[in-house]
Amino acid sequence: METSGFYNDNYSSGSSDDDLVDLSANAQDLLEDLSYDEQDHSQAEASLFSPGGRGQNGTAKLLDLLDDGLHRVGTYDDFNTIDWVREKSKDRDRHREINNKKRQSVLDLLLSLSDAFSGWLLMLLIGLMSGALAGGIDIAAHWLTDLKEGVCLNGFWFNHEHCCWNSKETTFQERDKCPNWKSWAELTVGVNEGASAYVVNYLLYVTWALLFAYLAVVLVRAFAPYACGSGIPEIKTILSGFIIRGYLGKWTLVIKTITLVLAVSSGLSLGKEGPLVHVACCCGNIFCHLFTKYRKNEAKRREVLSAASAVGVSVAFGAPIGGVLFSLEEVSYYFPLKTLWRSFFAALVAAFTLRSINPFGNSQLVLFYVEFHTPWHLMELFPFVLLGIFGGLWGAFFIRANMAWCRRRKNTRLGHYPVLEVVLVTLATALLAFPNDFTRMSGSHLISELFNDCSLLDSSQLCDYTSQVKGGAINNNLSHGANYSSSLYDRAAGPGVYTAIWQLALALLFKTLITVVTFGMKVPSGLFIPSMAVGAIAGRLLGIGMEQLAFYHHDWPIFKGCSSSTKCITPGLYAMLGAAACLGGVTRMTVSLVVIMFELTGGLEYIVPLMAATMTSKWVADALGREGIYEAHIRLNGYPFLEPKDEFEHKTLAMDVMRPRRSDPSLSVLTQSGMSVEQVEAVIADTSYSGFPVVVSQESPRLVGFVLRRDLVISIDSARLCQEGIVGASQVLFTEPTLTQPHGGPPSLNLRSIMDLSPLAITDQTPMDITVDIFRKLGLRQCLVTQNGRLLGIITKKDILKHMAQMTNRDPESILFN
Amino acid sequence: METSGFYNDNYSSGSSDDDLVDLSANAQDLLEDLSYDEQDHSQAEASLFSPGGRGQNGTAKLLDLLDDGLHRVGTYDDFNTIDWVREKSKDRDRHREINNKKRQSVLDLLLSLSDAFSGWLLMLLIGLMSGALAGGIDIAAHWLTDLKEGVCLNGFWFNHEHCCWNSKETTFQERDKCPNWKSWAELTVGVNEGASAYVVNYLLYVTWALLFAYLAVVLVRAFAPYACGSGIPEIKTILSGFIIRGYLGKWTLVIKTITLVLAVSSGLSLGKEGPLVHVACCCGNIFCHLFTKYRKNEAKRREVLSAASAVGVSVAFGAPIGGVLFSLEEVSYYFPLKTLWRSFFAALVAAFTLRSINPFGNSQLVLFYVEFHTPWHLMELFPFVLLGIFGGLWGAFFIRANMAWCRRRKNTRLGHYPVLEVVLVTLATALLAFPNDFTRMSGSHLISELFNDCSLLDSSQLCDYTSQVKGGAINNNLSHGANYSSSLYDRAAGPGVYTAIWQLALALLFKTLITVVTFGMKVPSGLFIPSMAVGAIAGRLLGIGMEQLAFYHHDWPIFKGCSSSTKCITPGLYAMLGAAACLGGVTRMTVSLVVIMFELTGGLEYIVPLMAATMTSKWVADALGREGIYEAHIRLNGYPFLEPKDEFEHKTLAMDVMRPRRSDPSLSVLTQSGMSVEQVEAVIADTSYSGFPVVVSQESPRLVGFVLRRDLVISIDSARLCQEGIVGASQVLFTEPTLTQPHGGPPSLNLRSIMDLSPLAITDQTPMDITVDIFRKLGLRQCLVTQNGRLLGIITKKDILKHMAQMTNRDPESILFN
């Protein structure tokens, strides 16, 4: 029988659950039945043994449940950490069994084959579903965003582009002003020019935004509190082995999908990329229920979730390789090679599903399709590094400001009015965003505009260059630029560009400030798009500056490389590098970021600038603060996450960390023989620990095994009911059952089968850096500490996290408490 | 003081070293002094304590050496396994020290900064050096390959292309026949046509090939036996923590670089990709000596080597991302995220260094630059999967055949004549290869020819399509194909293509057979190019077949998608997929293979066909045999490599694997007090174990710590010489030094400082799958086994490998023996 069971991480404190339950109070009842199949059982068990349970059942039912309970020792309670070693061992047992059977009959062979391919089938399903959902979200968000500005007469369900695409009356240039698309002013006051029309449009823009945001926050509050935020910090925690029940459930999926569309459409400064990872993980978790292999094993399920987070990024950007590397670098905890290959498959399936839906309308796989035609020059590395520095500084600033704001929200009355907060922020966003063209458009639209390399047909303000305006063709700049070098391809900025510069500068400031207060509100909100937007603005501004510098001072030695007949500076490339730098500064992604950007451009040509920008950005940001935004949020929420990247830097020993401390009473242990059932029950009643080491005897505390509180309670109660002669005075034995029954007295109760015979033990002199390494690599929940072979204490994951918090002068009590 | 030291893996067998030394007998003396700085010390120490040492030194020198020896306990002997936990702990200590110091003075701050950036500097150096070497190898191999056919009159150092590039007299089409390039027949008999010229060319081709191959094998034999083979199996073993001194030394680098050029030029069926990984790793290892951080720490050094192997693939194919993933997926054992980022940097630097050398002459980063312009059709997935099946079957066949041949070489007299073997195989290769155009050209040339999509200018036999020959322009096929669908773009094959089909079929057979006997010979030999060549031939054949089918039967329903005006089938794409499938079948690479191929084509367009082909290939090959070629060679050579991909599938317990076995005498232990110096020396003399557990007492064998034989010997000898009053009867203590000295008797010797206070212990009931997991994840060398707190035995990595061999019905004695 499998002896791995569930128990609290907090060995020496039994009160944390109360605090944690508070966090999810509203959602718990609603979600639990939906998200996990085992829910009914664990609830029934909980009511069985808790003094204030929901009512006592008859003995017959009790017996059923006990039997059932005995079969369900492998599950975990909410807000607990899984034991990776046991889970994987369990899966190997299962696999071995199937493998051994497969030669017995054709049916068994088929079962073994279906078992082997269930992983691939699961990946296919996740890919298809996530791709379809992402496509749906894109289409719906596009439509709702346009609805804020006007409506299509052909049918209100058409978005602006679609509406005008259908009407073939207009030429390419005028497609924006097609007759079937009416702005709200045109519909109501009949005109689209003048002050009154502006006011009507403004008003309706703000009203729609408020409506969408209000709906989003109310839906989240009412049905799925877990649907808020980006979800990546929580997914990182879940993947590291924590259990947050309902976080990846059906309701969260439905509500997150709907509210994500609403939140994005409301024009708030947030993106859909992080939430898409959450959505993909929900899909993964839900599909896991179709396969016993994944439903019953928390470790295997986490492999699937790792792949699902790759899928999320893959559909967010259309970058499957980048998505897999993102999952590997940023999100995952345990990422075996098998998962790498499967993630890649799932990410590809999702990307191609999304492409066949074609929500961007450009037949391209990627969100921001860019094609640059000019090579970069070596001297440009200097502005690229500058962008990297900006990105790093901005990232560090953003993390600090956002943390301060979130802490304030947590600790003051602000946190009690989430709906009001969302409405107010939306109001401010909408009011400030509408007047500025660059903030009125959606974040992803803004980014693709900024990435864009101006071509002949571009009517954008950003492409308003003098030579183009006057001649309408690029070659004209040769005649126009007669007093400059006629071979210079760069152009002088026109009035449109100068206006755009001011608008962009204002947008930069606005986006920076509003994103700080937006990220962390109770609506689904991703951070990729806002930070990329800020970086892209900064990059484009620098790019335009460099371009004009090259145009007016092409004789400077640094522009020597430019004096050929090709274009010298590509402002769009600067925007892309700025976006990468800011995103890198906030998230501290490295390889995955470069690869995602590489997939967007599709050429190795720009990898060196990308590396220069992201590397600088990471170095600068790391120098100002070690944590990325996700780690900061994990710490803020006190999730028990053992960061795999940080090194433990202190010279403490296991004996300094283990419980009991020197001043505490000695460790509660059971002995392998000599204790009566009553004595064991007394130990259980007196303590709140979730597990007890079993030793040879009190005088000789040599470790025999480890037994879980829950298993112990279930087994004793079950034995008292079913096994004849078991009374309070019966001996409890953990020895080999071959021992002869002592003469006289009631029959003894042997519980060796529920004892974990292979608990890991380290010596009290083990340095903590090695201990932390062991915990991380093996995914342990607890570890026993011995001195000269005698059991001395226990270290849990929580003890380690508390110790690490103490060592960095943080409040150790913040861990695991919300 | 650091207590980690070195000792043999083979706890119960002390004889393996003799066998291993045999392998490297010729090289050891020559290389040891060159490759490792510590060499002189460890040799001195060895001679000190071995009875048959190279002569006794004076006491003064002895003392010096002993002092020195005490400082050098952190190093390892040759053919031993490192202890990852200790090495990493050591590095953390070092890092902590530097970090604590950095606020003391500006100098210390600078030191800390230089320490932080030394890793990046190292990566830069490795990238530059490997890129330069790869460029040099490419250029030299290109020149020597052409030298087999003729010589340039402008200067013998020009290769064919270079020679004709310089002479601007010829047109593009005739560049192949430029006047300055003379074939050997033209130079000697004056003509290049007719039988006599053919015979002369043939003869000189064979002669040059023999000369190159002979030189290569003689150089390898004489100077660096480690330079033979691909090197990837050994690098995998080294990265997993094994020490093979000199394998990555300076001499190996020099000889491997030279002989690689010779071997490739000789026309043998081998590639330069695997050896380039070895070359890059040599660079990495040599540059490690510049930085204390990496020189003194085997774990840190392995991080660098992981990055270096990424560099190797990066320069081999011009695929930096693929290289990093190759290192992650195929080669590395311990690959932290920091290494991922640094590998990526180094791979990029190397790729751009190589590009600036531009050895392929096409300004492209990649080895096989291909650009396909036609989309693939869904029905083509069927032939793609067929290619996958072929690749899998071929891979499985190749591994079996090559293993059988290598085993024969190892076990029969064949292995005693490596030079003769190389000469004979070269003779056979050259004789058979010359008459066939496709085998005469070099492997990489053949592959790029096969990948190539026929364009207008192609004069290759493979592009001899009817319509082209008659009209000279592609549009002519519209008129030619009047009786076929005029919109069909596929073309009827001309006589050239039909000839090529036969030649390719023969080449396929020839390459398959000759590669089986070539891979494993005593010359540097990579497997990537030959297997890709075989796959590309098969793929091209299938592609041409499909193309002709589509041309003649375009009305078949499966070709419905083709009836547009675009080309339907791209034979070059088939060749690429075939190459990927065969490479995948042989090496079992997955993601990295797809990404390398993706980087060659630079478009996500063909990822789905690539995945279909490689996935099928891997499944088929795995069904026929679990091991890839590298794992098979590791097993053949008996390297102690704990495969991280395989799951341990058996239900044994730690007690079944540990030593001593039930029938053996009990474990040799030391007690923490009560043993005299003489008694300890007797234990050392009686056993050959490399370490001894320290227990409380013989009666109560509770684990206190673990002490290494080598440390023990050094410390006792040093104490006898330097410490007053230490005689044979002195007590050896491992207890806390605060204990009061017992009255009377000689002073005691406290050796607690050399004891490892934190040995990892597991219980005897621990399932072996968990034990294997712990060994793998923590990188342990040995682990102690306890039962109820009493020490029972020990498990070493070698015990595990032997046990695994036994479980799969292989000879357990094959491990570690050559």
UniProtKB/TrEMBL annotation, chains A, B:
<feature type="transmembrane region" description="Helical">
    <location>
        <begin position="573"/>
        <end position="598"/>
    </location>
</feature>
<keyword id="KW-1133">Transmembrane helix</keyword>
<keyword id="KW-0129">CBS domain</keyword>
<keyword id="KW-0406">Ion transport</keyword>
<feature type="transmembrane region" description="Helical">
    <location>
        <begin position="527"/>
        <end position="552"/>
    </location>
</feature>
<dbReference type="InterPro" id="IPR000644">
    <property type="entry name" value="CBS_dom"/>
</dbReference>
<dbReference type="InterPro" id="IPR001807">
    <property type="entry name" value="ClC"/>
</dbReference>
<comment type="similarity">
    <text>Belongs to the chloride channel (TC 2.A.49) family.</text>
</comment>
<dbReference type="GO" id="GO:0005247">
    <property type="term" value="F:voltage-gated chloride channel activity"/>
</dbReference>
<dbReference type="GO" id="GO:0005886">
    <property type="term" value="C:plasma membrane"/>
</dbReference>
<dbReference type="Pfam" id="PF00571">
    <property type="entry name" value="CBS"/>
</dbReference>
<keyword id="KW-0868">Chloride</keyword>
<feature type="transmembrane region" description="Helical">
    <location>
        <begin position="417"/>
        <end position="434"/>
    </location>
</feature>
<feature type="transmembrane region" description="Helical">
    <location>
        <begin position="248"/>
        <end position="270"/>
    </location>
</feature>
<keyword id="KW-0967">Endosome</keyword>
<dbReference type="GO" id="GO:0010008">
    <property type="term" value="C:endosome membrane"/>
</dbReference>
<feature type="transmembrane region" description="Helical">
    <location>
        <begin position="276"/>
        <end position="292"/>
    </location>
</feature>
<dbReference type="InterPro" id="IPR014743">
    <property type="entry name" value="Cl-channel_core"/>
</dbReference>
<feature type="transmembrane region" description="Helical">
    <location>
        <begin position="378"/>
        <end position="397"/>
    </location>
</feature>
<dbReference type="InterPro" id="IPR046342">
    <property type="entry name" value="CBS_dom_sf"/>
</dbReference>
<keyword id="KW-0813">Transport</keyword>
<feature type="transmembrane region" description="Helical">
    <location>
        <begin position="500"/>
        <end position="521"/>
    </location>
</feature>
<dbReference type="GO" id="GO:0005794">
    <property type="term" value="C:Golgi apparatus"/>
</dbReference>
<feature type="transmembrane region" description="Helical">
    <location>
        <begin position="202"/>
        <end position="227"/>
    </location>
</feature>
<dbReference type="GO" id="GO:0008021">
    <property type="term" value="C:synaptic vesicle"/>
</dbReference>
<protein>
    <recommendedName>
        <fullName>Chloride channel protein</fullName>
    </recommendedName>
</protein>
<feature type="domain" description="CBS">
    <location>
        <begin position="755"/>
        <end position="813"/>
    </location>
</feature>
<feature type="transmembrane region" description="Helical">
    <location>
        <begin position="304"/>
        <end position="328"/>
    </location>
</feature>
<keyword id="KW-0472">Membrane</keyword>
<dbReference type="Pfam" id="PF00654">
    <property type="entry name" value="Voltage_CLC"/>
</dbReference>
<dbReference type="GO" id="GO:0005769">
    <property type="term" value="C:early endosome"/>
</dbReference>
<keyword id="KW-0812">Transmembrane</keyword>
